[in-house]
Amino acid sequence: MEHLEHFRQEVRDWLEENCPPSMRTPLVPEEEVWGGRNAEYVNPESKLWLERMGNKGWTAPNLPKEYGGGGLDRDQTKVLHQELYRIKARPALNSFGIWMLAPCIIEFGSEEQKREHLPKIIKGEIRWCQGYSEPGSGSDLASLSTKAEDMGDHYLVNGQKVWTSYADKADWIFALVRTGPKEPKHNGISFLLIDMATEGVSTKPITLISGKSPFCETFFDNVKAPKENLVGVENSGWTIAKKLLQHERNFISNFGLAGGGTGSGADVVNIAKKYLGEANGQIANQAHRENITLHKMKEHAFGLTLQRSGDEGAKASAASSMFKYYGTEHNKDRYELMIAAMGNKGLGWTNEGFSDDEQAITKAWLRTKANSIEGGTSEVQLNVISRRVLDLPN
Amino acid sequence: MKLILTEEQQFLKDTAQSFARDKTPVTHFREMRDSENSQCWDQSVWKEMVELGWSGILVPEKFGGSEFGMAGISVIMQELGKTLTPSPILSTSVLGVSAINMLGSDEQKENYLPKIVAGELTTALAIDEGNHHDPFAIEATAVLDGDEWVLNGKKVFVVDGASADTVLLVARTSGKSGESNGISVFAANNDSPGLNITKIATADSRNYANIEMSDLKLDQNALLGEQDLAGETLERILDLGRIAISAEMLGNTEEAFEVTVNYLKERKQFGVQIGSFQALQHRAAKMFCEIELTKSAVIAAMHAADENSNELERLASLAKFQAGETLHLVSNEAIQMHGGIGVTDEYDIGFYLKRARVAEQIFGTSEFHQARYADISGF
After folding, report:
1. Which class is A2-123 in CATH?
2. Fold of the A242-389 domain
3. Exposure of A21 by Cβ count < 10 A (0-12 exposed, 13-18 middle, 19+ buried)?
4. For chain A, where do the domains classified as CATH 2.40.110.10 start and end?
5. CA-CA distance, B107 to A134, in Å (whole number)?
6. CA–CA distance, A176 with A165 (Å, rounded to integer)
7. pLDDT value at position A27?
8. SS3 helix, strand, coil % of chain A, rounded to 5?
9. Closest CA to B203 of B339, B360, B363
10. Of A96, A100, A163, nearest in space to A124 by CA
């Protein structure tokens, strides 16, 4: 305990000295930091903040120090997060590399891959995107057909990925490719790292029902990927893919809590009071008030469940399917309640007749429809719970 | 507040689990139901629970209890709920003990608590007067006449009221129905003249009574705590009762769900296990999620009670709401997924449905607690 308090003081002193003033103010979307070769910094202090945190390894506090991570244990990581939260520090770096790829490289990668990729991920020098889904392979991901042919010193990659978030801004992609076309579908998949600057890689953005989105299609046309970029053993990529999906689900499940995930951060109770009016300090319309109360009670119980899971020290597991399912369905419900409470003000598309906040909620409502599809549909999560938690037969 | 059990609480839970499995499997409840035993619980079983110290979990050490707290008694009730074990633990060890301990004078505590710990006395809290739980809608009156209290009015659906040695009567000493102020609590022996206790027969085959007070005369010592001022404390006592019964309902739910999932794996139709049908799998998976949420709400509420958290009221309502909604869902689905045998008396699963609906009513339905949660939260 004493040792922890000593560490807390160290963190506090370091943050005091190194967290620039503007990085302690609320984040504005244009100033979000994702790093990478082509990163642009609207605010120079966000670049400085990334460099300092990255050099310290605190963008990935629990990764080993020898690969550029913070080398902190569980309790120290918690202290760091508490101290960052205390001064309302902005995240120094958003990174699919840290959230999804790094844990898999640690578990499955070679020593060379760890030394090559982890420091660059942690410092935010290389930005990664995820190449999983294909036009013909959504829920049935293992049917994917992007093929990687063994050409001796390299793989020749041909095919198409879809829903690759920020592929147009990413430097590298971690992709699932078919290396064993004759093997049963789960046994012919490999996990391959590809430099997006390689000849033959191209991307095209996707417009969603909510408007502009970070999603892209990514095309591979005779792309040469060196063999040393295969993670783990050839044809055993499905194991890595599943592990990575659990990390992704854990991340997405936080959508269920107010303010988390895709959304505008607006509170449904405040919105209801504003657009339906108040009577004696209550939401004036009883039917809306009841629906919203149900929603808030479920949210409370769900938040307690996330907390309990943390207190129990549960690792990424089948329970992540429950969080993913419940959290995303709940987030969809929140926006349905929000636009319902707003009446005709919840249906704006542009600033003709609608405030920025109103439009943001309408767009966020549409965007939430993808929450229960991306990262494995709700139906797939329910399948996982049935099979792996309840052990129901196939 | 960490949402896990301490070693001590886990030990109590394990002990209760073995007890319920070995001494009071569901067949024990069935025997009770089919017997002539009008108190609906078995004296020898209760004696064994008393010997394990369960009657005194909430009693201060100086009166012979263990002070293991709401978490301690809740995990026991959860395990007893799995096998539908009938006992006076809720009415006596939670409500009776809390009321006497939180409202009573030292003399009253000295008089009642050691007897409760020893299993020599059971109690019942008589509060509701109408068809729905409404703790401040008290019309029963208590008037001081010389050196005696005179009580008049009625109480309904009193848990374990048919057998309790001492009945704790909630009556109005001032103000009007609906007000928190003006409420007082009195302790009366079950054989007091003017106290008419009538057992009622409910679908869950447990112990409830309607009570009439007609010029029931009690001496001044019968008043627990201060005149007019019991309202706020009563809410807290009820919250402890709500948390305890939520834990029991969680146990009911867990068992009904487990039995049902096992049935899905055994029962074959069309040549396959019916658990292979996605129409049933997804419903089972959704129930699993709701049960996980219920576990979290119950554990948060019982710890909040032990830590005197200012979130206690909200968490007690959340727990009772979530436990009620989930048990409602699971008890219905359990019957449907069992098909024909699910609606036979020979099979146990129907007991869970009957217990569910009654437990949902006790100390406020989901609707009651939804409204209360909204008011507390300022929605």
Report:
1. mainly alpha
2. Butyryl-CoA Dehydrogenase, subunit A; domain 3 (1.20.140)
3. exposed
4. 128-235
5. 77
6. 15
7. 86
8. 50, 15, 35
9. B360
10. A96
Map tokens 């402890």 to a residue: B240
Q: Which residues in A have their CB inside 8 Å of a CB on B?
A: 269, 272, 281-283, 289-290, 292-294, 296-298, 300-302, 304-305, 307-308, 311-312, 319, 322, 325-326, 379, 381-383, 385-386, 389-394
Share of chain A above pLDDT 70, in %: 94
pLDDT tens string B147-161 = 999 999 999 999 999
CATH for the A128-235 domain, from 1.10.390.10, 2.60.120.560, 2.40.110.10, 2.60.120.280: 2.40.110.10
The whole-angstrom separation of Cα A33 and Cα A54 is 12
DSSP string, B207-270: -EEEEEEEEEEEEGGGEESSTTB-HHHHHHHHHHHHHHHHHHHHHHHHHHHHHHHHHHHH-EET
User: Given B281, B297, B377, which is nearest A382 (Cβ)?
Assistant: B281
Backbone angles phi, psi at B223, to 5 degrees: -70, 125
Show Cβ contacts of residue B123 under 8 Å, excluding neighbours closer than 6 positions: B88, B91, B92, B95, B96, B99, B100, B112, B116, B160, B164, B165, B166, B167, B168
Residues of chain B with pLDDT under 70: none
Instruction: Give CA–CA dist A372/A366, Å, rounded.
Output: 12
Joined tokens for residue B365: 């339905």
Q: Are A192 and A231 in contact (CB under 8 A)?
A: yes
Q: Does B364 touch chain A (CB under 8 A)?
A: no
Cα–Cα distance, B89 to A269 (Å, whole number): 40
Query: How does strand A216-226 pair with strand A201-205?
Result: antiparallel
Average pLDDT over residues A164-185: 95
- The region that residue A213 occupies, defined by phi over 0 for left and psi between -120 and 50 for alpha, beta otherwise, is beta
Residues of chain A with Cβ-Cβ distance to B9 below 8 Å are none
Spatial distance between the Cα atoms of B226 and B181, rounded to a whole number of angstroms: 11
Q: How large is the ipTM?
A: 0.95
User: What residues does CATH 1.20.140.10 cover in chain A?
Assistant: 242-389
| Domains of chain B and CATH, by start | 7-121 (1.10.540.10), 124-229 (2.40.110.10), 232-377 (1.20.140.10)
Rounded CA-CA distance A316/A250 in Å is 7
Distance between CA atoms of A190 and A175, rounded to whole angstroms? 8
